[in-house]
Specification:
The chain is of the alpha/beta class. It is 35% helix and 15% strand. The chain has a 7-stranded mixed β-sheet with strand order 3-2-1-4-6-5-7, sandwiched between helices. Helix 7 packs parallel to helix 9.
Length: 240
């Protein structure tokens, strides 16, 4: 049996000047195809991604980061990739760490690998104080709800075995998962359904924290509450 085929999925919404840096750092020896999913971008991000050799998938209107990731998943599954890596389009993840992220899947049989800035060997540089508080608080909630000793549940840098996404118990095509909820839903289901899950240390980069919108498109309070929905819904059995 040959080496597993790996695809990288990058959700993109108006990341001109950043998405190019991400794509250029993708290790070609580890990743067979880089899939940039433009969620209605109108700033030239699409041309930048395509010009650097990424496969460009596009939503004609903004649907949400969850919908963009799901579109990337669907494409990768149709092309029979074995492992799918998700990383940010705003250059806050380090693509050179992809081999570290997928190693537990390739060598140890893990199904879902969560990147963690908080494990020994991980790093996060100058991170806004409120992010440090909220990321640790959410991880604490996940530990309480699932019993899994996760340290960085909000980190979007993840590696996933494709067979996990094909499991009928994981229902990603639900409208309420179109925004940021999808990532948290998938993580929780991987843990709750008994898939083999682990964390590995990764780097989270905050190059400019002088203004909130310079490092994130997450809306304060509104989206923070929204991201709690999968934890509440799955724990209480409201959604599956």
């Amino acid at each position: 049996m040959g080496a597993p085929r790996v695809a990288a999925v990058i959700p993109v919404y108006n990341e001109r000047g950043k998405i190019g840096r991400v794509i250029e750092k993708i290790p070609r020896e580890a990743v067979a195809e880089t899939i940039a999913v433009s969620d209605g971008s109108d700033d030239g991000s699409d041309e930048e991604a395509r010009g650097l050799g990424a496969t460009l998938l596009r939503h004609d209107r903004v649907k949400g980061v969850g919908a963009a990731i799901r579109t990337g998943f669907d494409y990768a599954l149709q092309r029979n990739y074995d492992i799918i890596v998700v990383l940010a389009g705003n250059d806050k993840d380090d693509p050179s760490e992809i081999p570290r992220l997928i190693k537990p899947i390739v060598e140890e049989g893990f199904d879902y690998v969560q990147g963690s800035r908080y494990l020994p060997g991980g790093a996060y540089g100058t991170m806004p104080v409120h992010r440090a508080v909220l990321t640790r608080a959410y991880s604490w909630l996940v530990r309480r709800a699932t019993g899994f000793p996760i340290t960085d549940a909000t980190n979007g840098f993840r590696g996933i075995r494709a067979s996990l996404l094909r499991d009928p118990r994981i229902r990603l095509h639900q409208d309420w998962l179109n925004r940021g909820e999808l990532e948290y839903y998938l993580q929780l289901q991987a843990i709750r359904l008994g898939f083999k899950v682990c964390e590995v240390p990764v780097t989270k980069i905050y190059p400019d924290i002088s203004a909130y919108r310079r490092y994130t498109k997450i809306r304060p309070v509104v989206d923070w509450i929204r991201f709690l929905r999968p934890l509440v819904y799955l724990t209480l059995g409201i959604k599956d």
